[in-house]
Specification:
Length: about 475
């Protein structure tokens, strides 16, 4: 925020502290480049965040506007898309310092931290095990929700301001924590949540069974060793966002998809029910999988049981077992940090009683000069909260290095780290256009269409807040 004043309710809840009313003022006047310049003071990825943020700002706006919020998130996307199509770049550092920070992990936290550190003139290098940067954004969120050209364009802009990337290098294999600490004045561990475990169901080791996150990661890194086609009958078990993403991706690959959920179908958000119906994904509700059947080591079916729920506690219904034939199964499973990458340093680092890496309020671990933030510390969280942590950690690291952040780069204490279900647009349907499709099979194009300039101005003018720079 420019002045640290969180004037409006929407601004008070934005994890990145975007000066919403000022950027809105620019959009109202058709000054889209200026709106971009304002947003990127707090958020280097407006086109990405404008597609994936759960938009708590709009919930505040809705309560002030009879349930009809200004589509802030979609306007942020519009500004990001405008910057993409007009080749606008991020602000370059005003000076260069001979101080360097090494960042482990090129996901939302690491990229965001690198941006804010670079803005202060600090040399930053991001080390990542994957071939391309982006973490969850590149490997788990499907391209029909987050087009890769948009993502990689916004990441490329970091390179333009001097962020260095080293890909295909893995902490714990290619270098140790001591080695990276020796190369830099400070280190940020931002390796995200790269581990999932299948539920302990008999038959889980059969070929064709994996977690939804593993399926998404393998598909997006071209490492899926199972062919999915129109002949595939698949089952997705669970209803978190990774399960929904996996089901929708499987449909696009041509597979028949059933989704097994413990709750009733009515308990799903209406937008999710609509998408599942539109994309011909069958819901089998109030059910749980008890056994995975295999033949020759490969999954061929599932045994399920009906579930009932009393005050949130589930129990199986006696004599309600049934079977589903299938040849591919994905289970939703909580993503967790993989601390094995810390190697010998794991014994030197402090962990909380619940097994999470222990950091203080400045994201500092107990080892001098080693910081950690984002999902690697707190577990799963939406992209925008990971980015907020990267920003806050960058400011803490700068202060550790005796560098004062520029005026206006304020550290918000992210107020909410817990996971949220944000699979679909929370903005009102009437302000967002969705591409009409007959069948999603084979169609990987983006579904939510962006605003044109006239609509963006018209929608921004619905915002009654006024704030000038
Ligand atoms: S959409 Fe998200 S990042 Fe954008 S202003 Fe709202 S809360 Fe902030």
């Amino acid at each position: 925020m420019s002045d640290g004043n969180f004037t409006y309710p929407c601004e008070r809840v934005c994890p990145l502290g975007i000066d919403i009313a000022v950027f809105m003022e620019f959009v109202k006047n058709g000054a889209f480049g200026e709106a971009f310049g304002k947003i990127v003071l707090d958020n280097p990825f407006p086109a990405v965040v404008g597609r994936v943020c759960p938009a708590p700002c709009e919930r505040e706006c809705a309560s002030a506007n009879n349930g009809n919020p200004v589509p802030i998130r979609h306007l942020e996307r519009f500004v990001g898309d405008h910057a993409y199509s007009h080749g606008l770049l991020l602000p370059a550092p005003e000076n260069e310092l001979e101080i360097s920070v090494g960042i482990v992990g090129a996901g939302a936290t690491g990229l965001s931290a690198a941006y804010f550190l670079r803005r202060m003139g600090i040399q930053t290098t991001i080390y990542d095990s994957m071939p391309r940067p982006g973490g969850t954004m590149a490997y788990l969120i499907p391209s029909f929700l987050l087009p890769r050209d948009v993502l990689f364009y916004e990441i490329m802009r970091l390179e333009k301001i001097g962020v260095r990337f080293e890909d295909r290098v893995c902490l714990g294999k290619d270098f140790s924590l001591a080695e990276i600490r020796g190369k830099h004045d400070a280190v940020l561990l931002a390796a995200g949540c790269s581990k999932t475990e299948l539920p302990k169901i008999p038959g889980r080791k059969s070929a064709g069974v994996m977690t939804a996150a593993d399926f998404l990661r393998k598909y997006h890194s071209a490492a899926l060793d199972i062919k999915i086609s129109g002949a595939t009958e698949s089952v997705v078990v669970g209803e978190d966002r990774w399960a929904i993403f996996a089901a929708r991706l499987l449909r696009r690959l041509g597979a028949g998809v059933k989704i097994v959920i413990k709750n009733s179908a009515q308990s799903l958000p209406p937008q999710i029910r609509k998408v599942l119906a539109d994309e011909q994904i069958e819901i089998i509700d109030s059910a749980a999988v008890t056994t995975i059947f295999s033949q020759g080591g490969k999954v061929v079916g599932l045994r399920c049981v009906k579930m009932s729920s009393t005050e949130g506690a589930f129990s199986s219904v006696p004599d309600s077992g049934f079977e589903i034939e299938c040849d591919f199964v994905c289970f939703s499973a909580r993503r967790q940090p993989d601390y094995s990458i810390l190697g010998e340093a794991k014994d030197l680092l402090k962990f909380t009683p619940s097994g999470k890496l222990d950091v203080d309020s400045n994201f500092s671990t107990n080892i001098y000069g080693i910081f950690a933030a984002g999902e690697f510390v707190f577990g799963e969280m939406p992209v925008v909260y990971s980015m907020a942590q990267g920003k806050a950690a960058a400011i803490s690291i700068a202060q550790f290095l005796d560098i004062s952040p520029p005026a206006g780069m304020t550290r918000l204490a992210p107020f909410q780290y817990k996971s949220q279900n944000y699979t679909l647009s929370p903005a009102p349907q009437e302000t967002i256009l969705y591409r009409q499709i007959q069948s999603c099979v084979g169609d990987f194009g983006e579904i939510a269409l962006g605003f044109d300039e006239a609509t963006a101005v018209e929608q921004a003018r619905r915002c009654a807040c006024t704030k000038k720079e």
